[in-house]
Specification:
This protein is mainly α. The protein has one domain: Rhopdopsin 7-helix transmembrane proteins. The chain contains twelve helices and two strands. The chain has a two-stranded antiparallel ribbon. Helix 9 packs antiparallel against helix 11 (284-295) and helix 11 (284-295) packs across helix 12. Belongs to the G-protein coupled receptor 1 family. This is P2Y purinoceptor 8-like. Residues 41-292 form the G-protein coupled receptors family 1 profile domain. It is a multi-pass membrane protein.
């Protein structure tokens, strides 16, 4: 990545990755666990956010947007698991490869931008509450912001939609999907640099800086507040959001930048490490429900209600069993 459109000799690191079944199995296991947690956690979150949480504040709208992107990733990961277990052989055609690759990376960067939007919303509501309350049509602004985020991400990732991302490797008898990119996907080295660096700087570093500023400002504002419970929740939320950025998104984007520079200018590769870092990127979809819990009071209340109902039901059943045992004794 990238390779020529004609027959090329792949570097040793990439060839070793394609022949390393142990790594494929490890990544597949991680993706399987992520898929299960993703579907259950975000399925419950989407149900609560849409049908049990009112009113639909801007934060709720952003959370619904984030949940939908997470569920889309959960639907795409089984195809990636199948691809890995077949030894990096893609048999579903170039169009399906492009669609699933787009879903994968759209989830990463829409998640980054949506968490930035949630951070801005909390920053305005806590640090500038009077001006924030005077802003009308906040729901409309939130919806427009979600549309803008999707448009921005799809614009940056546009080359992925217009290129055949599959690549045949005759010596291994496999056809890869997005693991070897054709150099003709973009016309010049400068275009490649612009594409890759815009992913890293525009869709990660800038949102990370904005998000960090917002949550640090919120914590500083609440530091002198008497509402210690609110302050603790804000600190926990800030910790989880920054944890997602540093653990899930930072390694992937840093390695993407390093790999791109090495590949474009020095013909070297750190692709094995980059491939492993994608596993960390997928973990964000498992941590997002925790963000909803600490960011939304109504979501937190409804979830506690469900847990209490279930615990009461289990408690009642245990009492009934205890009574039956006493009657039978």
């Amino acid at each position: 990545m990238p390779g020529n459109s004609s027959s090329i000799k792949l570097d040793n690191a990439t060839m070793a990755l394609f022949q390393d079944m142990n790594t494929s199995i490890i990544i597949s296991l991680i993706y399987s666990v992520v898929t299960g947690i993703n579907v259950v956690g975000n399925g419950l979150s989407l149900w609560l956010l849409i049908f049990r949480t009112t009113p639909k504040t801007p934060s709720i709208i952003f959370m619904i947007n984030l949940t939908l992107t997470d569920l889309a990733l959960g639907a795409a990961l089984p195809f990636q698991i199948s691809y890995l277990l077949q030894g990096y052989h893609w048999a579903l055609g170039s169009r399906m490869c492009s669609v699933l690759t787009l879903v994968f990376y759209t989830n990463i960067y829409c998640s980054v931008l949506t968490m930035m939007a949630i951070g801005i919303d909390r920053y305005l509501g806590i640090v500038w509450p009077m001006q924030f309350k005077l802003t009308r049509e906040r729901k409309s602004i939130a919806v427009i912001s979600c549309v803008f985020m999707w448009g921005l991400v799809l614009s940056v990732l546009y080359p992925l939609m217009t290129t055949d991302l599959t690549y045949e490797i005759p010596e291994l008898g496999i056809t890869t999907c997005f693991d070897v990119l054709k150099q003709t996907m973009l016309p010049t080295v400068g275009a490649w640099a612009g594409f890759l660096f815009s992913m890293v700087f525009l869709l990660f570093i800038f949102p990370f800086c904005v998000t960090a500023f917002c949550y640090v400002s919120v914590i500083r504002k609440l530091a002198s507040d008497s509402k210690t419970a609110q302050k603790k929740r804000a600190i926990r939320l800030a910790f989880i959001v920054l944890l997602v950025f540093t653990v899930c998104f930072a390694p992937n984007n840093i390695l993407l930048l390093v790999h791109s520079v090495l590949r474009l200018f020095y013909k070297k590769s750190v692709y094995m490490a980059y491939k492993m870092s994608l596993c960390l990127s997928c973990l964000n979809s498992c941590l997002d429900p925790f963000i909803y819990y600490f960011a939304c009071r109504d979501f937190r209340h409804k979830l506690r209600q469900i847990i209490n109902i279930q615990s009461q039901s289990s408690g009642d059943s245990m009492k009934m069993e205890h009574k039956e045992s006493l009657c039978n004794s």
